[in-house]
Amino acid sequence: MKVLIVGSGGREHAIASRVVLNKDVEKIYCAPGNAGIAALAECVDIKAMEFEKIRDFAVSKEVDLVIIGMDDPLVGGLTDILEEAGLRVFGPRKNAAILEGSKAFSKDLMKKYNIPTASYETFDDPSAAVEYLKTAPMPTVLKADGLALGKGVLICQTLEEAIEGVKTIMEDKAFGDAGNRLVVEEFMVGREVSVLSFVDGKTIKTMTSAQDHKRAGDGDTGLNTGGMGTFSPSPFYTEEVDEFCKKYIYQATVDAMAKEGRPFKGIIFFGLMLTKNGPRVLEYNARFGDPEAQVVLPRMENDLVEVMQACIDGRLDTVDLKFSDNAAVCVVLASGGYPVSYRKGYKISGLDSFEGKNDYFCFHAGTAQKDGDIVTSGGRVLGITALGDDLKNARAKAYEACKWVEFTDMYKRNDIGKAIDEA
Ligand code: AMP
Ligand code: GLY
Is residue 105 part of a domain? Predict the structure, then answer.
């Protein structure tokens, strides 16, 4: 079979590295892909938001399965366009991807179906938001309604900051049209956990847990990024937490979407906060997390393509989803200056050190080929993942492997997985 993967990051490289293991897969295409994915797939020069071009390409190559890795095309309705052309697609339709595409939608859904989350109010008018904030407890959380590369969330300590934040999101439109609507949310305290799941419209099977590190600097300082590193499993995701989430969050979300006439097929990513009053949903995403995928997929024992096919066909209940009893840590190697401004085009050396090592993965995110070399081409450049018997061992191996590669201005966090020591 022929598979087309849509996207260009470490997540798509991690997906491709599993798809290639399926014995029925004879050809993988990736649009647009990157220099690492190019070792497994034929990368085609079509961007993820060029829907008609993707459709025409997939039809002309008689692709059997399209896997959409990224949020923007899912929220924009790529699945619908491809399905209308008769293609098989892994990833939710537009009316279901709204679970990630609109925070106002997801908050209203949780409220209506009693799914535990922070209390909130939604505003279309900045002055109404400011009036409300005058009586709201501080700190408070402001969220642009739409997609904002994971950056549309402001945590405000004081009323002044909150008023400034309303201006930033709704008037200055720092996150574009994503800020036409604003969600003001109760500030919660606790540890964060990411739980990804496969969903076939009615059945949900959760994967092993993971934890991301969203801030750019050590000790969770600096700006929010797409994610600077992950570990899996989270030692804080206990059986008790799992039981609570199974009872009140996971199936409840899938059932709620089905009841709303928006059956969800694909990946639901639950961003959870473990508060002292129990787990609460921080956010939903409609795709694998990145870099969560880079620690979760290497631990998965099932054939990824088979599980995806089961989701599309609505027979996920027959799948026994299994993860190895080990651990993984991913450290992101970024371009110095990310997430603000950084230079690209630096040669990356040492990539061949990963060849033939089963416990180590070098997932490419922002890389490109230039004059026979592999060069940096984005903020997050590589995700260095290691498997270990336990989290400490995996972390030591991941940081060791970070030394194998080099490029100018390389930046990484040095405390990925530090929370492991507190478990
Ligand atoms: P989100 O994009 O909704 O996951 O928000 C990005 C980050 O902001 C989260 O990973 C949390 O660290 C933080 N955050 C979001 N909502 C809240 C909240 N209600 N209380 C505290 N922190 C939050
Ligand atoms: N790592 C967080 C995300 O993919 O949204």
Answer: no
The 10s digit of each residue's pLDDT in 338-350 is: 999 999 999 999 9
Per-residue pLDDT of 250-291, as tens digits, reads: 999 999 999 999 999 999 999 999 999 999 999 999 999 999
The enclosing domain of 156 has a CATH number of: 3.30.1490.20
Q: How far is the CA of 213 from the centre of ligand 2 (A)?
A: 9
Output the six-digit token pair for 420: 């492991």
Question: Ligand 1, closest atom to CA 152?
Answer: 2
- Residue 141 in contact with ligand 1 by CB distance below 6 A: yes
**pLDDT for the residue 150:** 72
Nearest residue by C-alpha to atom 3 in ligand 1: 283
Q: How far is the CA of 369 from the centre of ligand 1 (A)?
A: 36
Tell me, yes or no, whether 104 lies in a domain: no
Spatial separation of the C-alpha atoms in residues 240 and 287, rounded to whole Å: 26
Angle, helices 103-112/94-101, rounded to nearest 10 degrees: 100
Residue 373 sits in a domain whose CATH number is 3.90.600.10
Is 174 strand, coil or helix? coil
Q: Which two tokens stand for residue 128?
A: 């109404």
**pLDDT bucket at 224, cuts 50 / 70 / 90:** confident
CATH number of the domain to which 253 belongs: 3.30.470.20
Helix H or strand E segment including 231: strand 229-232
Last residue of one domain, picked from the residues 318, 351, 386: 318
DSSP SS3 for 373: strand
Q: How far is the CA of 227 from the centre of ligand 2 (A)?
A: 6
**Confidence grade of residue 198 (pLDDT, cut at 50, 70, 90):** very high
Q: How many domains does the chain have?
A: 4
Same domain, 211 and 308: yes
For ligand 2, residues with CB inside 6 Å are: 150, 212, 227, 285, 289-290, 292
The model carries a pTM of: 0.96
